[in-house]
Amino acid sequence: MVEHLDVLATMDERGSELADAWVLANEGEIVGLGTGVAPAGVGRRVDGHGLVAVPGLVNTHHHFFQTLTRCLPAAQDERILEWLGTNYTFWSRIDEEAVYTTARVAIGELLLSGCTTSSDHLYAFPKSSAGATSMLGAEIAAAAELGMRFQATRGAMDVSQEAGGGPPQELIEDTDAVLENMEEVVGKFHDPMPGSMVRVALAPCSVTICSERLMIESGELARRLGVTRHTHVAEVREEVEHCAEVYGRRPVERLEDLGWLGDDVWLAHVVHANASDISLLAASGTGVSHCPSSNMRLGSGAAPVLEMGDAGVAVGLGVDGSASNDSGNLLAEARQAMLLSRVSGSGDRLMPARHALRLATNGGAKVLKRDDIGVLEIGRRADIAFFSLSGIAGAGTEHDPVAALVLAPPRGATHVMVDGRFAVWDGHLMVDEASIVSEHQALVRRITRRIKK
Ligand SMILES: [Zn+2]
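Above are the sequence and the zinc ion SMILES. Below is the predicted complex in structure-token form.
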């Protein structure tokens, strides 16, 4: 029981917000919420004075392993193709241990920002590594250890383009082996039940670095296995030019040709989308993961998120990989989404703070096709982020504490509950943060040394 919350923003369809609120969780589920005096006779009671409660934030796109190459000097001012080329030098040397170590940093950072569910797009499986099953297993173990609800995805790249920023041979997988492994990891890790803490989606990297056969057959496989699908699309203008030249289609149309639009699909970026692309996404029920920081950092552009929302497309937020954001703070991402929309949108319409907060919560849940999270209401899982507006940065924001979460500079969450358990308490993870950081420092040194050899 958390009681006497200043405000509880449910993020339900009506946008209900409760003042002097309480919320009660039992066995991972929200079993009661209301205002004023909370019911007696419950177990642990937490004082919520000074706190704002919102649904746990949902991160729909990430590459945990990229914490390895944050702020890499050579890649700081590069656009995506050159940036990829620089980063592959490091990524082609990761192994199971690197995946585990980077995942703990990425997940810890997300949790501290109020995020309770994250997806991760893991697509770098060097030939020298133990392979995708053990690497996916390593990040699933990290999520369980830190207490994050997790949407793993089995990424893949099977087309090498030695020129132009394509992946090196070390990261290229055999198409048949990928398809076989995709079925294996779904069988091993995927839990389809409501309230599930681990789900697996199939995620070939993009139409430009995956073969037509991998795209088509992984899509068919996902449908046969009853799992969702994820890929990158329309991130940069070069991709639009490539698809026009090679296929005579726009990137979203190319996905349609490959059977890759549908209500079991969510797509990262979709920066370069016109009205007809947006109609295709809406009509097919395809979700979009909007990654504003990454799109700004790499100079990729600004996705038309308000227009997508108007058309009925489900839109959520993603921090994208840590090497193209240099951060994994999802509350910061909500602020970036609001600000980027305000400078890039057509007309005079300004994205409201609550709209951005909805993208970060309920929007993300819809994108990941989960109806058991994303709203604070009885029967949903107890995934809740609690923020304090105390201190210098919060002074004056009492006019509207909910909007302040996005309008004011992002703050760390005070407490974060995932499936009824606290994964963050009083601004700290429930695991040893110092060892997470020191092990990551050792990893960066180890891989950098290997590159220099
Ligand atoms: Zn990405």
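The chain has 14 helices and 17 strands.
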